[in-house]
Amino acid sequence: MGKIKTMILVLRNDISEQELSHILEKIKQLGFTPHISKGIKKTIIGLIGEQAERYREIFESIPGIESISEIELPFKLASREFKEDSTVININGVEIGGKEIILMAGPCAVESREMLLQVAREVKEGGAKILRGGAFKPRTSPYSFQGLGKEALLYLKEAKELTGLLVVTEVMKPEQVELVAEYADILQIGARNVQNFELLKEVGYSRKPVLLKRGIATTIKEWLMSAEYILSGGNYNVILCERGIRTFETATRFTLDLNCIPAVKKYSHLPIIVDPSHGTGVHDYISSMSKAAIACGADGLIIEVHPSPEDALSDGPQSLRPHEFKQLVQELRPIAEAVGRKL
Amino acid sequence: MGKIKTMILVLRNDISEQELSHILEKIKQLGFTPHISKGIKKTIIGLIGEQAERYREIFESIPGIESISEIELPFKLASREFKEDSTVININGVEIGGKEIILMAGPCAVESREMLLQVAREVKEGGAKILRGGAFKPRTSPYSFQGLGKEALLYLKEAKELTGLLVVTEVMKPEQVELVAEYADILQIGARNVQNFELLKEVGYSRKPVLLKRGIATTIKEWLMSAEYILSGGNYNVILCERGIRTFETATRFTLDLNCIPAVKKYSHLPIIVDPSHGTGVHDYISSMSKAAIACGADGLIIEVHPSPEDALSDGPQSLRPHEFKQLVQELRPIAEAVGRKL
Amino acid sequence: MGKIKTMILVLRNDISEQELSHILEKIKQLGFTPHISKGIKKTIIGLIGEQAERYREIFESIPGIESISEIELPFKLASREFKEDSTVININGVEIGGKEIILMAGPCAVESREMLLQVAREVKEGGAKILRGGAFKPRTSPYSFQGLGKEALLYLKEAKELTGLLVVTEVMKPEQVELVAEYADILQIGARNVQNFELLKEVGYSRKPVLLKRGIATTIKEWLMSAEYILSGGNYNVILCERGIRTFETATRFTLDLNCIPAVKKYSHLPIIVDPSHGTGVHDYISSMSKAAIACGADGLIIEVHPSPEDALSDGPQSLRPHEFKQLVQELRPIAEAVGRKL
Amino acid sequence: MGKIKTMILVLRNDISEQELSHILEKIKQLGFTPHISKGIKKTIIGLIGEQAERYREIFESIPGIESISEIELPFKLASREFKEDSTVININGVEIGGKEIILMAGPCAVESREMLLQVAREVKEGGAKILRGGAFKPRTSPYSFQGLGKEALLYLKEAKELTGLLVVTEVMKPEQVELVAEYADILQIGARNVQNFELLKEVGYSRKPVLLKRGIATTIKEWLMSAEYILSGGNYNVILCERGIRTFETATRFTLDLNCIPAVKKYSHLPIIVDPSHGTGVHDYISSMSKAAIACGADGLIIEVHPSPEDALSDGPQSLRPHEFKQLVQELRPIAEAVGRKL
User: Fold this and answer.
1) Is the distance from CB of D319 to CB of D99 less than 8 angstroms?
2) How far apart are CA D33 and CA D37, in angstroms?
3) pLDDT tens readout for residues D133-144
4) How far does B144 lie from chain D, in Å, by closest CA?
5) What is the pLDDT of residues D270-295, one digit of tens each?
6) B5-71 in CATH: which number?
7) Per CATH, which fold does D89-338 belong to?
8) How near does any CA of chain C get to the CA of D183, in Å?
């Protein structure tokens, strides 16, 4: 069994529609799925497969192709080699990966309708564009609160209608994807499922944007390989989310690894946001680490906000109160501007 | 929402069947599932739930109960407090957790019928009791060999019939459990799925023994919590498997953490085996670490054996050749005896 | 042997000089060294020792003392409980820990007189206040360049006279302290010596400010304990420096742990700076991580600058060129302002 | 500056003394220090230096040399390439690295004369050959017991005279080496000083055997580089000691990394022992991990023994009582025999 190669066909800028159709047809004829990447300067098509390189000669003689190259990195569609321009994901006008810093906020778990609607209104007021809230909750203990399930999805939908916020919520198993996709604008894959490949494949078949959290012991390369599972299924709308890695340090619950921001930006075109709530696990450090995240290039933040953190059913100690969230957004704005972004 | 408590009812040795029935009925009436643990000296019943302790008085006055206590650890059914005697899992006469060291061996992935049957015969000859072989393979890259799937299950069944070996193979998603359970004697949960709670719940409903691998960044406590997910579903046949944790050291692929053997034995009654192949990732260290594992109390080993490791579709560099496996078993025998076990 | 206690005597604001002298005399009489902390609101005296608490009653009756309390944390003099106001270290007018962000820059190792003088002029021009440069170099291999030693100290002195920059350089063994202190304004303790307690004691007896780098596997608590070694020797001028911890991630040489900035600020009054060069080990990430460090509250940066990184005798790949350093300072300025600092 | 090369001159078995002298003279003439390794089959001479390879031609024409090769690994004198046969260090008849498993035992710190003499007699009776006991103690806190210092060295000497045990004790700074070497048979370098290069150089100039503990975040390669510092000073008697690395797991104080035993044995000829007391930090796991260490090839163990661990001034919870130590030795014997060693 050979090493997987990825052949890149760079199209001529003056390619005709007919030529393009011909190329795509040829690719499918050979048994490959064509992955198209339209850049500002160039459009390219990626062919991924075991013997992709064997057909190089065929494409060399087809009109409309300027040049042919190969991607050496283990991740292909996720790489900057495949797509030079940074990906901007547009969901109903909210652009993730663009000039604007996007804030996602809300409670760790949806605990009740009233609480969710209250928090939704507050974070909207504060400047959030997307509402977070767990309906299905992965919990270390089988005896801990596991989320309200479908009931929570209904509340999220109501909150969305009420506030205009988009909704992101977690999906935990393949057969849940369809249900969650009905209610959510973004499907979240949690840190524990970053290498749950069956689930990755399933959301790869969906056309909903996916928020892919990094696992607590996942290298950046492995993480981009997990993104590749989703992209190779045809779903190109993947948002990465750094949420802390496990190290020897115990002063923080996890070690938020901001180094991954410039590293991901170097190797991949995908947008990346930061979760300072899970990443530190300490209420008092959320503000500082949010600022640092924006300063080093994150495209957004996902922050836990709860009206009374001390009563939260899950992850209270790392949640901001609504007024603290609003205060934080005020403080983030000049930093966003200092790095040429807006908020 | 209160902290989960576990109430332990220690039964009198002279309890009558009628008294026992009455107790079980009462437990169900109150909305709890009774978990029974029959020890050599005592039989106990565990009640797990949010307000379990509220009903203490009720049980204090019921005949047949000698004493009532509580489990403080976060894992309940998995703890030695719940079950003092070590669990021995008997599968068609093969006892895991008993006096005998049990060897599981076979290829990383089932690659073909011929190869599997050959390896099965060889490892049987060498002293293995259980055949390992992946049908569904979790791979970091979507472009790597993903396993033969159902075809492999058929080969495993054939190998079992031919050699009398039991079969262990991995299950990767909830809806696969039923299919895999038809062919396998033990369902394997891989390291990457150690906190795939939906999958844990599903195998908890099954009655097939489960081999639960530790995640690469899973603490011993979290691992026992994952076992608790399975036990609390009613499936008490869980075998733990240490397979290396991720550390800063790069001389080995992972750091096989043998310290977890005495730690697990202290806190839990569940049997535990060791995977020196994945744990080190280095062919040359498998023999030494197998010996160490037996010396410090492991109940068995799971070892990758491949007729020509250099051609393996997955994890070749960490596989033993059949004759090396046989040689290793010879060397393990005196160590097993030195610690009062047999092989 | 009892647990070490630290008794804190909070002085009355209207205490007379005579009363203060009496208290200090009493403390010495009892065999303790008094550590004085003058805050904006209050002045306190710390007594550290095995039976400090035994003498509580004595002090309760001495005039001039407002109240008596104890520090529970294992680090005493380094804690915010001992000294509420953040420490500002003034070296010839350069204030570390004050409103201004302080930049330290220069080559990893002093390689030649010409190179050092050139870099010194350039970083001064760029905005640095302190020149870094290794004279004695700790190297993993005994066969690697070990530094120019005393010769380098002379060049550093010359560079200082030429540019007005202060000088920070590493000291590697107790008997070197005196020599290095003659030439340097700040004594650097490298990451590998963070728990070289004999060296810490020696610089504790010096009155030169100390730059204490965090070890690659040192918890924040242990790090503050190492600072305590220096403080308890009577040298209160300790600057902490985060330089990356060792984790499983290999995309960066170390994982720069910015979470420690708000954590140290919470528990300690000592100033803290960040070393993005060693912390990431990747030239391309230095700029982003420098911005993040300022955004989350660091009091300064220490950055490697080399005129031709590709020829450096040590750590070339993580050095900025002089013009890159100047460019970076321009980009850092608006971030410093966004968090209420200046640069 | 060029990469350091190491040229290996393999001598002819029938080399004359005159030829050998000529070769050594030539080497010194060229400015190198010759390192001689006499193996069972071959004697080789290593030349380490920046341009060693430049002189290849010169040696090619000198009589008595069979062949010339180069060592590619970063550690040279510590490598099996330089010395194929495992090093056996003989100290007054006690052989470390030979067939016999060597036990070192005693208290963490020397606390009093009486206690030390009592423990010495007991561990001698139990089968130890070497007495451990800290005179100078590296402690995280400046307020913790720092050891009795020179007084403890006198007690160790007395215990040695009384029991015939050899003595190993820690040295913490370069200027202590001479003093400690007067009293100790083996100089211990603690984990925190594994990259205290000035200290390594100093013990490299000594001719006393050195016990070099691995640091808590030191890779095997870095550890062997630290050994290289000592060897390159001319002290070839280095014993490595694994004592646990820092990982995310908190069930043990450190993660004893037994994988390093076969790894070190593969890459180096130096003997290696294991410290299960510091390695686990848990009394109950010491026995199991001692067995595992012997089973996977360790040449010895260093175990903390204290008459009343609950009163120990340092590291009590990880000490065995004298009778537990004796019991353990009984249990280790059959394992040693199972792997072809004796005890």
Assistant:
1) no
2) 13
3) 999 999 998 888
4) 28
5) 999 999 999 999 999 999 999 999 99
6) 3.30.70.1140
7) TIM Barrel (3.20.20)
8) 20
